[in-house]
Structure formats: structure tokens, C-alpha cells
Amino acid sequence: MDIKVDSNTVVVFDLDDTLYNELDFLKSAYQSIAVYLEPTNWKPLYSKMFSLYRCEINVFEFIATAYNLELKTLVEMYRNHHPKIQLFDGVLDVFDAIKSKNGKIGIITDGRSKTQRAKIESLGILDYLDGIVISDEIASEKPSLDNFKAIERLVSGKDYYYIADNLKKDFIAPNTLGWRSVALIDNGKNIHFDSHKFSDAQNLPQDYILNLKDLKIV
């Protein structure tokens, strides 16, 4: 897919399962918790936790009972750990290409400020970004128009693109505002994998890509 970029172009990305797999954040958090609880032999516990998750059994309830911990303590450990995550292949190439054409880059993401900013820092992309909108920081979540209007205020432009993955909430607002909406197809590891439930016209993107390498900045 070609995107024509100049100084009036703003390419906005979702974060989780768009620039990296959110499952890797979950695995990173589980490992951090396992190391904290079993510092000398953490791998069996980590294996147990991930197996419980895959079987859709509440991991935190298991840990809270087994180690006599409060659930809120585990949730805070999950949210506030320093994540070990990696960008999808092709992300930096796309970012570099956008910047080489004097385009601008933004992020709109739902989540808690500390958690989402830790992800951005770990991914090493902060210096590329002209604007960041995090739901926790503006008390508004997608699909609200407010999140997208916030980026329009932060980053001026004429042509806006939104590249994201979740048909439930990602494309309603940009479609309404006249942005170009692009869906990154689930690579089989997405946390949210129920896109088939959201096939109404308002939910659908205007384009699909298999991976970020499909984007050609011209």
C-alpha cells in the first residue's frame, strides 16, 4: 500500500498489536513476576503462568492464592514492570521513510499512562513521535472522537492516516473524521482476536496490510 507523504501528512499508529505484539508485554510481565516470587528458580512458575493464561484460567487468582498476595499487588506489578518488547520488523523503516518526506508521526493508544509510556520507551521510538495521545491522560478511550481530535490539535496536518488492528474500536472515529484508516491483520498472536464480530461498515478500515513492510512511503 502506498502512502504519499509530505509536510502536511500525519501518520498515526496504534501501539499494542500494531507496533509490537502485546502478547510479548504479557510474557515480559509474567517473567518479571515469576523472577520476583521465585528468584533462584523462576522458570517453572513462568511456565505455569503462561500455560494457565493459554487455558483461559485466571493467572492472578492462582498466584494470589499460592503466594498469599493481594490481587491488586499483582496487577500493579504487571502494569508497572519495565517491559522487554521489540518492534515488528519494518516499523523503523516506515518511520524513517515518513520523516525523510517531512511527514509527522503520532500514536493514539488506550491504557494507563505509566504503562504505555514505558512501552514506548522500551521500544525506543520516542524521538520519532510528534504527538502521543493516551486514554488515561485525557480521560477518554477509543472509539471516542476526542482521542483523534486530540492528535489533530497536537500535530497539525491536512492528511491523516490511522494504522491499527482492532476492528471493535480503532476505525470508527478516523472514518468519521475523514482520515484514511488501515488495518494491520492479526499475525496470529494478537490479544484481541475477535474482529469477525465487528463487520459493520463503521468498524471496517478502508485498507488492510499484512505487515508494516506492506507500507510504501512515496
- Count of alpha/pi helices: 9
CATH class of the largest domain reads: Alpha Beta
**Main β-sheet, in a few words?**
6 strands, parallel
The SS-based structural class is alpha/beta
- Can you tell me the CATH superfamily of the largest domain? HAD superfamily/HAD-like
Number of strands: 8
CA radius of gyration is: 18 Å
Domain count, please report it.
2
CATH architecture of the largest domain, by name, is 3-Layer(aba) Sandwich
Run of helices and strands: EEHHHHHEHEHHEHEEE
Please name the CATH topology of the largest domain. Answer: Rossmann fold
Fraction of helical residues: 40-55%
Distance N terminus to C terminus? 10 Å
Strand proportion: 15-25%
Indicate the overall shape.
elongated
Task: Explain this structure.
- This protein has 218 residues and is α/β, with parallel strands linked by helices.
- The protein contains 9 helices and 8 strands.
- β5 (159-164), α9 (172-177) and β6 form a beta-alpha-beta unit.
- The relative contact order is 0.19.
Features of the shown structure:
single chain; 218 residues; alpha/beta; Rossmann fold; six-stranded parallel β-sheet; two-stranded parallel sheet; 9 helices; HAD family hydrolase; metal ion binding; HAD-like_sf
Summarize the structure.
Its cofactor is Mg(2+). This protein has 218 residues and is α/β, with parallel strands linked by helices.
